[in-house]
């Protein structure tokens, strides 16, 4: 079996994110199962006749996947879709305007945030309608969808009004790689000058992720060291804003993005990993940090129960007091190892690849016909909450 993979977020390899990791690691694990995988950098002019199946990633930027969907349909090749999606309508925040939409909106949001958000909402309506049409087309055109959780599937069903998605969904867990030994020269490369223990946040700088919210939540607790690692800390307006907050707080450290294989050294020094994000499914950094022994603070806006059960500390990122309470609880708690064991049992890339292959085999066995004719997949891989 040969599969062509494509991430609809253009530049996903250059601007690496969790969706990129999911695509690349899933591809590697599938190859161990005998699947030939080719990751496309660009879908323009792609000859889909040379594959058995097309696998698209990321519904958020669906418009960029419609061309490849049409090519696959014309060639009668089945399409799988890893949705990596969350409804963000609740996540409107002045910071999204101040640091994401140019100088005018930045000033407007700083002076009159509620009015700026209202006008921005009106301004975005045409684009949002076009985006929703593209997302609906991709959901309806895919033969099998592969959400990362039952919560994500139900989010899609509710937002798009498509209960039929349940009949052709296979839940594919997001995952981590088991810990491996580290080279002895790693510490000097990415942990030099850092405290012996700290609260870590591993994420590219963006208002959705919430670095500023984390600093503000712990502004009155400067005795707890904060460490941020990720792209955009110095060359974006939001990153510079976080630096300004950090100067006021003190005891806050910034590490430029480091290669993924070096991240375990930071995870192992972290007493707590905090991700007060408005969108995660569930957050690869949280899973990776937990595997290396950190207590994890996660946001309510994620499939918390399916992945973390009761072995995490939950916050509402819209409220600094909630973020602070969760972090202080995590900082003062002894790690139990239960979350680590749970992740290594249920959420590894080989398991994700097995469920992905299950979805592939189902659509190939039924002939890759129109999605509307789909019979239920062999089973839903409902994630364990035990």
Notes on the protein architecture:
By secondary structure, the protein is an alpha/beta fold. The protein has helices at residues 18-32, 66-74, 94-98, 102-111, 113-123, 125-141, 150-160, 187-190, 211-217, 237-249, 263-269, 284-291, 304-308, 320-332, 338-346, 349-365, and strands spanning 2-7, 36-39, 53-57, 79-82, 144-145, 198-202, 226-229, 252-255, 270-275, 295-299, 313-315. The strands form 2 sheets. A 6-stranded parallel beta sheet has the order 8-7-6-9-10-11, sandwiched between helices. The chain has a 5-stranded parallel beta sheet with strand order 2-1-3-4-5, sandwiched between helices. Helix 1 packs across helix 16 and helix 9 (211-217) runs parallel beside helix 10. The longest helix has 17 residues, at 125-141. It is globular and about 60 Å long. The model is unreliable at 369-376 and 378-386 (pLDDT under 50).
Q: What spatial form do the alpha-carbon principal axes imply? A: globular
Number of helices: 16
Largest sheet geometry: 6 strands, parallel
Distance from N terminus to C terminus (CA atoms, Å) equals: 34 Å
Count of strand segments:
11
The low-confidence parts are: 369-376, 378-386
| Portion in strands | 5-15%
Round the mean pLDDT to the nearest integer and report it. 86
List the strand order in the largest sheet: 8-7-6-9-10-11
Question: SSE string, helix = H, strand = E?
Answer: EHEEHEHHHHEHHEHEHEHEHEHEHHH
Radius of gyration: 21 Å
SS-based class: alpha/beta
Helix content: 40-55%
């Amino acid at each position: 079996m040969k599969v062509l993979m494509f991430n609809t977020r253009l530049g996903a390899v250059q601007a690496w994110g969790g969706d990129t990791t999911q695509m690349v690691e899933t591809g590697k694990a599938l190859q161990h199962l005998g699947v030939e995988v080719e990751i496309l950098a660009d879908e323009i002019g792609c000859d889909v006749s040379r594959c058995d199946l097309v696998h698209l990633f990321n519904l958020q930027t669906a418009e960029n996947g419609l061309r490849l969907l049409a090519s696959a349909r014309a060639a009668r090749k089945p399409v799988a879709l890893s949705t990596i999606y969350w409804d963000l309508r609740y996540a409107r925040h002045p910071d999204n305007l101040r640091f994401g939409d140019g100088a005018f909106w930045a000033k407007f949001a700083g002076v009159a945030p509620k009015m700026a958000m209202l006008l921005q909402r009106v301004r975005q309506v045409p684009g949002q309608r076009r985006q929703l049409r593209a997302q609906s087309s991709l959901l309806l055109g895919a033969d099998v969808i592969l959400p990362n959780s039952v919560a994500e599937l139900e989010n899609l069903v509710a937002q798009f009004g498509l209960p039929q998605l349940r009949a052709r969904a296979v839940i594919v867990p997001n995952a981590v790689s088991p810990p491996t030994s580290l080279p002895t020269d790693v510490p000097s490369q990415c942990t030099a000058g850092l405290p012996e223990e700290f609260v870590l946040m591993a994420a590219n700088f963006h208002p959705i992720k919430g670095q500023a919210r984390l600093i503000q939540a712990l502004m009155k607790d400067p005795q707890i060291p904060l460490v941020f690692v990720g792209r955009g800390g110095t060359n974006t307006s939001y990153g510079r804003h976080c630096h300004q907050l950090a100067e006021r707080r003190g005891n806050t450290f910034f590490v430029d993005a480091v290669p993924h294989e070096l991240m375990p050294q930071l995870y192992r020094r972290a007493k707590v990993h905090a991700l007060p994000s408005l969108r995660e499914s569930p957050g690869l950094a949280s899973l990776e940090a937990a595997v290396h022994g950190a207590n994890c603070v996660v946001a309510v806006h994620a499939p918390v129960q399916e992945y973390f059960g009761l072995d995490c500390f939950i916050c509402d990122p819209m409220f600094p007091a909630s973020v602070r309470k969760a972090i202080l609880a995590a900082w003062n708690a002894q790690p139990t190892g239960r979350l680590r064991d749970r992740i290594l049992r249920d959420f590894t890339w080989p398991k994700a690849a097995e469920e992905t292959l299950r979805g592939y085999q189902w659509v190939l066995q039924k002939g890759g016909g129109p999605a509307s004719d789909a019979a239920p997949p062999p089973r839903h891989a409902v994630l364990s909450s035990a």
